[in-house]
Amino acid sequence: MLDLYLKNGINAINEEPIEIGILGKKIIAVSNKLEGIQAKNTIDLEKSLVSAGWIDDHTHCYEKLTLYYDDPDEDGYKSGVTTVIDAGSTGSDNIEDFYNITRNKVTNVFAMINIGKTGILAQNELGDFSKVQSVPLKKAICNLKDFIVGIKVRESHSVVINNGVKPLIVAKKIQKELGGQFPIMTHVGANPPELKSVMDLLDENDIITHVYNGKPNGILDKEHNISTFAWEAYRRGVKFDVGHGTDSFNFNTFDLAYKCGLIPYSISTDIYNRNRINGPVFNMSTTMDKMLLCGLSLGEVVKKVTEAPANSFNLVTKGKLKPGYDADITIFDLENKEKELIDSNNNTKKTSTVIKPKSVVVMGKYYKI
Ligand SMILES: [Zn+2]
């Protein structure tokens, strides 16, 4: 006897029929058509699209902060996202509290630990280099190894002030001490530090977020070509992440990069309370709408919010609809309706295809949105 049987869905990646059987917190059967199923609860998806639960690998959802904060469930399951990864809101001082207060959330919550011990208590958390301390950081990673999935380093001028890439160098050293594969996500923005000096330090275990921003210290050179150092990082396997945010996604940058083949590895929002309510982020599906409009296929977009972030952050039981994987599932429709999309620099585009999340399964439990 299954706990939950989802029937009559359409797989969003290959557009084939899909049915899923769930027992407890796990997917135990997946097929075009499951025969002879007995389940405590059966839901007819009526040909809605189905994907593995969406994973947003750049969010800010430690509710006790004042700058970037949110309720993980507002960024999460209520908008179709079954897993949120907080991107460095907390450091070794406060990450245990963050862990404790997120245990009763519906949404799966993971965190990258900020290289600065206070997390983002203020915008310049890395301006005072005495806050970069390896010992308590490594201790926190060890104590909370099922929660802390990476290290976050914000490498832009307002954050590091005069410390340049020094915090990133410390993070790379810690990564090496941990065996080399523990992911580092680096945020980029205004200089100094120069984008080149940040990118040159990264390799295939690292994620760079806010890549498609419209700032002067971006991936484009003065002639609006992709800079050589950006191509070099991309070809080295550095994972380029969207990290839309309030200031960090520009349609022109994205269109140019996409045309050249500099395609994001993963799609994320950099969502927090204010840019969720006032825009331009609003939610994950709006960011996905933008990717669709810019030319990515639905299958590509879905993989970049499921398999890709699961791979980046070693979430080995998430990101796919396969037996043995966690029963995290997003059910949604593609609606034909006019919608204006706005980037972080007030550029707008109109779309007529809108992704509308309808329901989710999170660790085996079904929730209508
Ligand atoms: Zn962020």
Q: What does the largest sheet look like?
A: 8 strands, mixed
Low-confidence residue ranges: none
Helix/sheet category = alpha/beta
Mean pLDDT: 98
CATH top level label of the largest domain: Alpha Beta
Determine the CATH topology of the largest domain.
Answer: TIM Barrel
Q: How many domains is the backbone divided into?
A: 2
Helix content: 10-25%
If you had to describe this structure to a student in words, what would you say it looks like?
The chain is α/β, with parallel strands linked by helices. It has two domains: 2-51 and 323-333 and 357-368, Urease, subunit C, domain 1 (Roll); 54-312, TIM Barrel, CATH 3.20.20. The chain has helices at 72-75, 95-101, 134-143, 157-160, 166-177, 195-199, 228-236, 251-260, 273-277, 284-293, 298-304, 307-312, and strands spanning 2-11, 17-23, 26-31, 39-44, 49-52, 54-59, 81-87, 108-114, 148-155, 184-188, 206-209, 239-241, 329-342, 348-362, 365-368. Strands 1, 2, 3, 4, 5, 13, 14 and 15 form an eight-stranded mixed beta sheet that branches. A seven-stranded parallel beta sheet has the order 6-7-8-9-10-11-12. The model has no long low-confidence stretch (mean pLDDT 98). It binds zinc ion. The record marks 154 as: Transition state stabilizer. Zn(2+) 2 binds at residues 152, 187, 210.
